[in-house]
Amino acid sequence: MSKAFIPTYDICSLAMGRPASEDILVARFSAYLAVHKDIHFPHRHSFYHLVFFTAGGGSHTIDFERFPVKPGQLYFMIPGQVHSWFFSGKTEGYVMNVSADFFNAFLQDAEYVERFPFFSGVSAEGVVQLPKATAPVVTQLFEEMLKEIRGEQVYSQDLLRLKVLEMFIQVSRASRQKHAKQEPPHNYVLLRNFRKLVDQHYMQLHLPKDYAARLYVTPNYLNAFCRHMLGKSAGEIIRDRVLLEAKRLLINADMSIASIAYQLSFEDNSYFTKFFKKYAGVTPEEFRKNIS
């Protein structure tokens, strides 16, 4: 397949023989790889995607950030993120593809799933190394999901929803226990709202004051808050989102550098090139050449 663009897969295209109307797929990872042998190159999903590794090595890349594959590791991806992988040795575990609609018939709060920290859309936050005590719990939940995915008993879909949500909660608890300092809940709400606004408006709004006004806080407070929570200023978070989208667009060889600069609201091609070189370490042309 040409690397001139990033393909986007929906659940139906990766269904492994399941009915096209399904909103969820759960499978053993080795079986998934055997059916979809050519999805190691960069691609996106239109659904939530996660893999739990129980054996294997190699690496997987999420939004151009590379992570080593380790047993006991989960990675979570939200729709639209770009990823690829390279495995060494026998890789085993479990894979889940699930649409947002899968939960909508069950939960009154449409944003409930987005609140889990591993679904922030930040690559490093979506990779979780489970404590040894939690890995068997997650393994057992996946085994129970594999039974329910067959849909042979009444209420199978509802029980499957419960198992998926229980797994999300168990992983969230385990990952937060690793951090000694626990933030008050309202801090996570503000952080999630800021990130959501950035994801919606980063092409047009590049200044922290624009987001602070929408969050009803001062720019100084927003910057201090972001440094406290993430070790970065609000401006850096906005800049990182613009840089990430630039990298995603650069994979499309049919888009000119000037077109990308215009889409990202840069004044001109020269300013965009200087911005990209400063923060990515290479020019847009060099980045494109390296990934081709």
From TrEMBL:
SMART domains cross-referenced by the UniProt entry: HTH_ARAC
Example of a GO MF term: sequence-specific DNA binding
All copies of domain HTH araC/xylS-type, residue ranges: 192-290
Keywords linked to the UniProt accession: DNA-binding, Transcription, Transcription regulation
InterPro entries: AraC-bd, Homeodomain-like_sf, HTH-like, HTH_AraC, RmlC-like_jellyroll, Tscrpt_reg_AraC-type_HTH
Claim: Membrane is one of the keywords in the record: no
Listed PANTHER family: ARAC-FAMILY TRANSCRIPTIONAL REGULATOR (PTHR43280), TRANSCRIPTIONAL REGULATORY PROTEIN (PTHR43280:SF32)
Protein name: AraC family transcriptional regulator
Organism: Chitinophaga niastensis
